Amino acid sequence: MIGGLFIYNHKGEVLISRVYRDDIGRNAVDAFRVNVIHARQQVRSPVTNIARTSFFHVKRSNIWLAAVTKQNVNAAMVFEFLYKMCDVMAAYFGKISEENIKNNFVLIYELLDEILDFGYPQNSETGALKTFITQQGIKGQHQTKEEQSQITSQVTGQIGWRREGIKYRRNELFLDVLESVNLLMSPQGQVLSAHVSGRVVMKSYLSGMPECKFGMNDKIVIDKQGKGGASDDAGKSELGGSGKQSIAIDDCTFHQCVRLSKFDSERSISFIPPDGEYELMRYRTTKDIILPFRVIPLVREVGRTKLEVKVVIKSNFKPSLLAQKIEVRIPTPLNTSGVQVICMKGKAKYKASENAIVWKIKRMAGMKESQISAEIELLPTNDKKKWARPPISMNFEVPFAPSGLKVRYLKVFESKLNYSDHDVIKWVRYIGRSGIYETRC
Amino acid sequence: MPAVSKGDGMRGLAVFISDIRNCKSKEAEIKRINKELANIRSKFKGDKALDGYSKKKYVCKLLFIFLLGHDIDFGHMEAVNLLSSNKYTEKQIGYLFISVLVNSNSELIRLINNAIKNDLSSRNPTFMCLALHCIANVGSREMAEAFAGEIPRILVAGDTMDSVKQSAALCLLRLYKTSPDLVLMGEWTSRVVHLLNDQHMGVVTAAISLITCLSQKNPDEFKTCVSLAVSRLSRIVSSASTDLQDYTYYFVPAPWLSCKLLRLLQCYPPPEDGAVKGRLVECLETILNKAQEPPKSKKVQHSNAKNAILFEAIALIIHYDSEPNLLVRACNQLGQFLQHRETNLRYLALESMCTLASSEFSHEAVKTHIETVINALKTERDVSVRQRAADLLYAMCDRSNAKQIVAEMLSYLETADYSIREEMVLKVAILAEKYAVDYSWYVDTILNLIRIAGDYVSEEVWYRVIQIVINRDDVQGYAAKTVFEALQAPACHENMVKVGGYILGEFGNLIAGDPRSSPLVQFNLLHSKFHLCSVPTRALLLSAYIKFINLFPETKTTIQEVLRCDSQIRNSDVELQQRAVEYLKLSSIASTDVLATVLEEMPPFPERESSILAKLKKKKGPGAVSNELEEGKREGGELNGAGERPGDSSAIGASNASTPSPSADLLGLRSAAPVSAAPPSAGSLLVDVFSEAGPAAPAASVNDDGFLRDLEPPTESSDSLLAEGSGDSDSAPPSVVSEDPAPPLPESDELLNKFVCKNNGVLFENQLLQIGIKSEYRQNLGRMYLFYGNKTSVQFVSFTTTVSCPGELQSHLNVQLKPVDPLVEGGAQVQQVINIECITDFSEAPILNIKFRYGGALQNLSLKLPVTINKFFQPTEMASNDFFQRWKQLSQPQQEAQKIFKANHAMDTEVIKAKLLGLGTALLDKVDPNPENFVCAGVIQTKSQQVGCLLRLEPNAQAQPGEQMYRLTLRSSKDTVSKRLCDLLAEQF
């Protein structure tokens, strides 16, 4: 039961203000600005309680979204809604920025009316929303009565995320496995913590009301099948170095279209997909992660005024694959007065405003290594505090899933229309990105 | 800063600042700053030397970043380099950075000091000023160490520029304030004082600040400044407004300088030299005259400046307090301000008048403004001004106008601001008491006070009214009647119920003759309030009821019924329940004679300082209360208290009241408090009233001793045996440890001496145990309360105490010990009662042996109980010839004991008096022809005989240089008594 929703710019000026319930007064807008945005100390908690009113906020670049309530709501629900709200806005007008919000404020109010009713979240499916909230002015003239009633029956019906009567000449679907890998490693190369959070995003252009079944190398399913028949050679890994066949998924969540009862009983993922792009599932794994890069730091302090840094990165995947957008960030001490960098590959630069050396490499194949060495000159200070040596962080993108997840099948059944699973063109893509990928030095 | 040339504009700095200002978010700002810092670092690190301009620019940027709240850990060296520049702007920035950023423990201090030294010795006045300002701004001890010697030289040097002199004076002032021990004026003193004669007014102004501060610390050295200040002041005051050019402010010549001069003069008494004094008086008169002149300007600055001088002059007049003429004029002048439009002026006038009122010369003059002040109290809009008006009314009050003022304050109280109500209440209470000619007026006033502002009437106020009513027979009847009437109001404040309960309980019989206030009516009236009151009040009312039973036997059945009902006898509050049970039992068992003794009327309280005054003082802090308090009386009060450790007595008092004896029979009453004084067991509430009332209050407590002892079941001996047996059963056989009391502690003789002249205090203390003592003596009987406090968190087991009387003492002293609980919990305190009967005179002290187990280890402790023969003194008052007649009668040599001994303590008459009173004798005034000598008389009461004692103490302060001697002579009818007393007393002085 969200009482109200406010959007602020970085200065704390209110861009959007929508109050759903009477218990939220106008002063709540100011309370959040004064106590959070303009707070003397940075407010780190996403939930703030001011005068028995709870404020839940998320920040997208310089924009603050705050949901307000006086009741004891499920905070996870509120945040889920806020994230959904961000997704919806991004789907309508792209990047969430002050200018975009100002330009689309009518649309935003319209959306807010639709996805939140008396503080209760409603249908926030972009595809469905786009059928009746458009950016091209009023569509009413062009919509027939049937179309309008169809929208109504769809939105209020059992399968609210898909309308009937969709027809494509080519039945096609795209499956993206997007993963971000997080790591903290000790200077000696010991993994202190590592986990992968992944998403399966699907873009479907299928006719009718197809029934889909999705299969992956989930350990529980594989083991169940493994008992039945002999070991399935077809599932052998074609990615990375690990020869394992199944992965242990720690937890996962699904899009509303997935039949959870079936997942619970048979562990099979079956669903009627929405039309267009959507996120089928989210998951997290912590075991047997393939770490695409290894960072080997070497920091030597030469006297009080000089620091020598050498960093080696090794790519740890099949040589045929290419990693992209590699960026290594080496922090420098606060009293750095000058930096000389030599690197064999890519470009490196000392960025004073961020107190770091940033080393960028466009592409790098698997099983290679590259090195950078830097000489950092220091200004002697009368501050006795030692430099805290923040970790070296890294960004990259690799064309495989570091968790080892593989799509085993995605079957499409449409009984009413005359196309079968074989007629559907399917595309699968794996992208592994870095999350917080740090090595201590 | 001189005109900025184009090159000094520091464009880079301006750009940087505007960049920062334009940053959209905090992150952007931090990024920009990081970038700039990196740039500056690389510039400072760079091989090629920076020129002065860029150095200045970067240091400026660093300073700006620091002031934005970021840490700066470099650049100090560059700033120090700037100090040696020859350009003003660079030097200035360098000094600015150092004043803001350099902390005293930096290693750069040496370099900085060097640079400052160079600038100080340079001939350039601007540089000297910069250096001096830096020293003053930093003001650290290191700076003071380095330059404290140098600056006075600059200050008094003949060739120093005026502006430098100004800076030097203020710099020295600052160093003196931070480290006075380092700034030694010595030889410079007279030359600094002569700065008052300087031509340049700025120098004089700066120098006065310095001299004022210095002369407050050592007034004698700077005495000469008085005449110089007076002559300077007279020159300024008599000058025409145009004479001083720059230093004339809105037609007032040098107002700040005048104020400072007047303030300097307030550090000293009036000048002795007639000429100087005449000149000063003339000045003050001129200032007062000028105040009467029509203003030369309508601007507020003009009147402000003029009034500043005037108020400072009045403050000086009040400080001197010797010129009746001036005081009266000042008072009249202030009287005019009382009705001024300006609120500030009215405030200041009221405040100054408050001090004027305490001067004997102007008191009458102040009193003439009473109507205006009362009006101010009623009509002022600002509460702080009203507060001052109330203060002034309090200060100007005396016997002649007390009734009017008290009445006005009372009527104002109804509408008074909440913040000042409590203070007002205290003031009314004090005035009413102080100037009460007729005590019925006093009673009326206080009861009115409780009626009007009951919530703000503190405990002290109603304690006081009860003390006064009890001590004055003439108002008791009236008080009872008034209270009775006041209680008839349907809603009355709880404090009123308390006063009513107490007074009717004591003096209800005085109005019982009237059928309208018959005993039963009184009781019903009180009881109708009972259920609306808080627990302490109800406890007090219960005590009043039992007193009613004594006063009016006809109410007995009614009251017993009330006590017997479940809401009393089974009350959830222990205190109430205990009272109900005990009072019910007392009323049903005891005969009327016993009741009459136990519930006797309260004895009068000893006269002492009103506790309300102390409360008012505490509230306002020292100095705020008018000086009219009778100083002697207050000192006396403090002295009496000083005999005891202040903390101890109250702690014991509180613990005494808060440990209602678990054996809740009648004996519990005895341990809690004297029976006759019913309210004392109301706990800490009443501690203040009774804490010091020790010797006089519990008249009945000892008298009924025998009766109570009869009631007590004789189980104590078997109890203690049982406890001991069970406690020790698992360890060594009890006979081994318990038969062997430790020898008395070596210091126990000292402990004994400590208690010769006092009855309460801490007897003994170590890491485990604290023993407090409280004792009372009456005739040949005494009772001692011992409080054993467990200071650890572990319980003591098999805690036993015994008292033994070694040798002959057994037949001289009868000591009875009540058993004590064998378990003492960690942090708890247990109480033990010892009854002592003196059979005949004695010289040894009984030995108290304490045994307990602490964590398995047996602790064995022996102490001497502080029971000495002088405790059984009864004071005897006698006239001079009577005394000497008896003195001569006791002239046999064995009857006299004499000692001549050195004083161990300073000879303070008040302390000696207090000690002699503590001894128990009567201190006889005006008996001895030599007023230095002290003469006392008393009778020692023992069971077998009474021994009269006479005492003479002759201090000799000049016996030998550096040594003070006493001669102590004691004569008594029994030789052993004389000797023992003489020995005891010789240790005390």
Automatic annotation (TrEMBL), chain B:
Major location (coarse): membrane
GO biological process, one term: intracellular protein transport
InterPro entries registered for this protein in UniProt: Adaptor_Complx_Large_Subunit, AP2_complex_asu, ARM-like, ARM-type_fold, Clathrin/coatomer_adapt-like_N, Clathrin_a-adaptin_app_sub_C, Clathrin_a/b/g-adaptin_app_Ig, Clathrin_app_Ig-like_sf
Record field: compositional bias (Polar residues): 652-662
Any one GO CC term of the record: AP-2 adaptor complex
Subcellular location: Cell membrane; Membrane, Coated pit
Topology of the protein relative to the lipid bilayer: Peripheral membrane protein
Keywords associated with the record: Cell membrane, Coated pit, Endocytosis, Membrane, Protein transport, Transport
Protein origin, superkingdom: Eukaryota
MF GO annotations: clathrin adaptor activity
SMART domains assigned to the protein according to its UniProt record, in alphabetical order: Alpha_adaptinC2 (SM00809)
Binding site for a 1,2-diacyl-sn-glycero-3-phospho-(1D-myo-inositol-3,4,5-trisphosphate): R11, G12, K43, Y53, K57, Y58, V59, C60, K61
Residue segments, region Disordered: 623-665, 699-745
Segments forming domain Clathrin adaptor alpha/beta/gamma-adaptin appendage Ig-like subdomain: 753-866
Family to which the UniProt record says this protein belongs: Belongs to the adaptor complexes large subunit family.
Entry function: Component of the adaptor protein complex 2 (AP-2). Adaptor protein complexes function in protein transport via transport vesicles in different membrane traffic pathways. Adaptor protein complexes are vesicle coat components and appear to be involved in cargo selection and vesicle formation. AP-2 is involved in clathrin-dependent endocytosis in which cargo proteins are incorporated into vesicles surrounded by clathrin (clathrin-coated vesicles, CCVs) which are destined for fusion with the early endosome.
Subunit structure: Adaptor protein complex 2 (AP-2) is a heterotetramer composed of two large adaptins (alpha-type subunit AP2A1 or AP2A2 and beta-type subunit AP2B1), a medium adaptin (mu-type subunit AP2M1) and a small adaptin (sigma-type subunit AP2S1).
Name of this chain's protein: AP-2 complex subunit alpha
